[in-house]
């Protein structure tokens, strides 16, 4: 098995055509076909089913495709790392709350300490970050949930308080003044949730379980993947939501939103630094991780 064979296979799957794969890789179509045939011979498995209309992956082909993408990603990451080894480059994924509300204070502070470090940052939901770490695209991630996959190492670095937000009007102000139980508000109001895969979404599921509220009993009116969009929709009366207090109390939000504290037994979650335990992390990546953990440890005292 050679890299060029993997590249041919991935290109055929990605572009759905031997001809397009040939054009993109600047090699002949017979060469593409030879590469895939050699892979199938080596693994004694049919990977692709080719018809006049389309190209379909077999079950083993799908499994092989995922492995091939990961291998090529690791290769490219290694080449890029060695090409830029004169610079300390950290490839990092960050979910919504860390990227929007924590990195703006973390990175300037770290750059003052280590000005030679360069960050390549990608924002996604927590599950998307974990997937990219497994592929080798990121050195580390900042996420709002853990996984049972034992290939990951999770290190908590920040305690994120969660709150319920509503539109700022007389009706909700009266509920707040009367200290109406959060359980009753959640049961009776339209609710806006984050999408599957986000740490905030997972927190809400755990909150509902602790409050003995079946999710099926909720009046979910929308699901979004953007924290600011959720705030704007709540401010304009579409529904209520549960979000990070850092987001709810960002500058200007107090003019549009009311913030309700959650029950103490379920009012916070940990944010985590995560990395692949089998991948080599350079000393400057470890240094940055230590800085992040110490930064918020110091801020609590």
Features:
301 residues, alpha/beta, seven-stranded mixed β-sheet, two-stranded antiparallel sheet, 12 helices, 11 strands, 23% strand
Describe this structure in words.
The termini are far apart. The longest helix has 25 residues, at 59-83. With 301 residues, this protein is α/β, with parallel strands linked by helices. The protein contains 12 helices and 11 strands. Helix content is 49%, strand content 23%. The model has no long low-confidence stretch (mean pLDDT 87). It has helices at residues 3-15, 18-25, 29-43, 59-83, 96-113, 126-135, 170-177, 182-188, 199-210, 227-235, 245-248, 283-299; strands spanning 48-50, 55-57, 88-94, 117-123, 140-143, 152-167, 190-194, 219-224, 241-244, 257-261, 268-276. 29% of the residues are buried. Strand 7, helix 9 (199-210) and strand 8 (219-224) form a beta-alpha-beta unit. The strands form 3 sheets. Strands 3, 4, 5, 6, 9, 10 and 11 form a 7-stranded mixed β-sheet that branches. Strands 1-2 form a two-stranded antiparallel sheet.
Question: Nutshell version of this structure?
Answer:
The protein is built from twelve helices and eleven strands.
- SSE order: HHHEEHEHEHEEHHEHEHEHEEH
CA-based gyration radius: 24 Å
The overall strand count is 11
Gap between N and C termini: 55 Å
Proportion in β-strands = 15-25%
Please outline the major beta sheet: 7 strands, mixed
Oligomer: single chain
Count of helical stretches:
12
Could you estimate the helical fraction of the residues in percent?
A: 40-55%
List segments where confidence is low: pLDDT < 50 over at least 5 consecutive residues.
none
Instruction: Please tell me what the overall shape is.
Output: globular
Q: Kindly state the mean pLDDT as a whole number? A: 87
Supply the helix-strand structural class: alpha/beta
């Amino acid at each position: 098995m050679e890299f060029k064979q993997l590249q041919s296979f991935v290109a055929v799957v990605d572009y759905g055509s031997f001809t397009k794969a040939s054009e993109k890789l600047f090699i002949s179509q017979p060469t593409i076909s030879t590469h895939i045939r050699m892979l199938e011979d080596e693994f004694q498995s049919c990977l692709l089913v080719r018809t006049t209309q389309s190209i379909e992956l077999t079950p083993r082909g799908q499994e092989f495709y995922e492995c091939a993408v990961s291998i090529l990603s690791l290769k490219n990451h290694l080449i890029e790392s060695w090409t830029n080894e004169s610079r300390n480059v950290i490839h990092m994924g960050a979910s919504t709350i860390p990227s929007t509300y924590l990195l703006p204070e973390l990175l300037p502070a770290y750059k003052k300490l280590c000005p030679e470090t360069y960050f390549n940052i990608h924002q996604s939901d927590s599950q998307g970050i974990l997937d990219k770490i497994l592929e080798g695209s990121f050195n580390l991630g900042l996420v709002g949930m853990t996984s049972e996959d034992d290939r990951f190492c999770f290190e908590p670095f920040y305690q994120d308080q969660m709150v319920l937000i509503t539109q700022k009007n007389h009706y909700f102000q009266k509920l707040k003044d009367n200290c109406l139980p959060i359980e009753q508000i959640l049961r009776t109001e339209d609710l806006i949730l984050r999408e599957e895969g986000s740490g905030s979404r997972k927190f809400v599921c755990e909150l509902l379980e602790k409050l003995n509220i079946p999710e099926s009993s909720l009046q979910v009116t929308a699901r979004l993947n953007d924290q600011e969009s959720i705030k704007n929709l709540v401010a304009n009366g579409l529904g209520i939501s549960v979000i990070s207090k850092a987001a709810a109390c960002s500058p200007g939000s107090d003019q549009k939103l009311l913030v309700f504290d959650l029950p103490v037994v379920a009012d916070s979650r940990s944010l985590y630094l995560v990395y692949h335990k089998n991948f080599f992390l350079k000393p400057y990546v470890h240094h940055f991780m230590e800085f992040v953990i110490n930064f918020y440890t110091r801020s609590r005292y």
